[in-house]
Amino acid sequence: MRVTGLIAAISILIVLFALAYGLVVLGISGPPAPVKLRLLGEKYLYYMINPATKYFTAESPEGVSAILWDYRGLDTLYETMVLFGAIIGAILVYREYLYSEPRKTGKIYGLSHIVRTVSKIIIWLTIIIAVAFGFTGQITPGGGFIGGAAFAVAPVLLVLVYTLGYARRLGLTHRRALLLRASFLLLLLLVIVTPLIAGGYIFQNQAKPGSAFSFPGRFIDSTPLGGSIFFLNLFELFAVAGAFTVAFILLGVIASLKEGE
Amino acid sequence: MMGIGEVFWLYIWLIIMANMGLAIYGLIMRPNILKKIACLTVLADTSFIVLAFIGYRFKYPVSPYIMTNWAPNNATITHFISESVDPLPPTLTITAVVINLSITILLVFLAIRLYEVYGTLDVKKIAMIKKELRGGEK
Amino acid sequence: MRARYIAVWLAGIFIYFLIVARITLFDLVVAPIISMVAALIMGGEVVKKPYKAFSPKRWLYGLAYMLYYLLIVEPTCHLRVASMVLGLRDYRPDIVEVSFDYRTDYAIAATANSITNTPGTIVVDIDPRNKKYYVHWLEAYTRDPRVAREKIISVFDKWIKRIFED
Fold first, then answer.
1. Which residues on A lie below 8 Å from B44 (Cβ)?
2. Mean pLDDT across A163-181
3. Residue A84 lies in a domain
């Protein structure tokens, strides 16, 4: 036992040393302490909101959203699929519990009075901030993925601090969350195929050579909308939030059932 | 002679490597599955820090990858590029954070199932129980 | 009932502008929608009596209490605990019962957080039915809940009541 542990530790150290040597001394990821931008990052920054290059602009002043939903849009779509595959897998393991009522035990479940009172405000603020991430993902940091993950904190707090019954009374049931997830994923796919229907390319945002179709790049007061980026961020937010909410409600159901045993 | 940037860079790398080493060690050597999952998340979070440091620039006026000027011309874009950090590593991080979260949820659900079946989360005990079960069948 | 949701909705719009620190037409259109999502989920729970939330007198009292708490109560408690650490002052740690007479949840939570945030006292548990905090106190020379209340809560009492009660 002790010898295997030692061997494992030494081999891990050797691997990490090789990795560090390669990254820092050999400079696999660029020079150590980089001062200049890499060419790819520079190109993305140059094109992301450039009125001079009409066919390359994404109309989004936020670099990450522009890359995520415009330049590397299909990658993000498949990453979304990985995310939902994992969530569906998690739900499949325990799907029989999804439709069973949480057992009512005589025990007091949930945290103390003070924590409940403070959590009310925190959950409310979390939801505001999470949804704001999704709505303003094209001009400030955030976006659909992060907004959805932040939104998922709300059901976690609801199930942990209060009971599952409280979450249900607020209208946060797994059926609604599944509906939310499915409907917003459909809307997301609709945004992706809309240019195809209009005679353009799939995942097209702004006008490209050979297809004049473009999503609205600016709001009425010339605030950048990023075309499809705004809609994709928004729908991704609610889809991710719904998926995580289902998973956490299911965890709460399992916990309440196990507590009764 | 190394500048302050290189020294800082090396120091951060040492800390990141130590963190990664601990995480991988826990992932391999700890028998409890919950601890393995925790080590996996530590490893993932460390790799996000690696990405953040790969994207950073060691110069003084350094700004995030967000254009504050919404009607830019060529001069403002050039100025923006001269200050901004690389937007690509944060992009990788953003999706990785969420996928890491969803995979952690999947692993937790599987761990609960495993506990339901075997009554323990210790992989060594689970292996012993499996061996006994196989022996019983013969 | 509907007034609660509207109060939470308006407060949410204010919070949104506090976060983004920018007023454009886009924000003015988007903020009510964002705030509505949060109000639809949590609106019925955050506020119980909406007319209280729109009283400027309460806001001013809240602001004044914040200044009083941070500038006077906190430093004096810090000094007291620091002198205990240095051995200049005697101490007797114990957990005591402290009674309170608040009716609203927010007053109870605000007092508990005020007690916990000052060094030397920590609310360990709460018994809302018998109206008692269980406080870990560094100067527990008494076990009488009323005397303990005089010593611990009376500093915050009138402020909290003006902000959240009456």
1. none
2. 83
3. yes
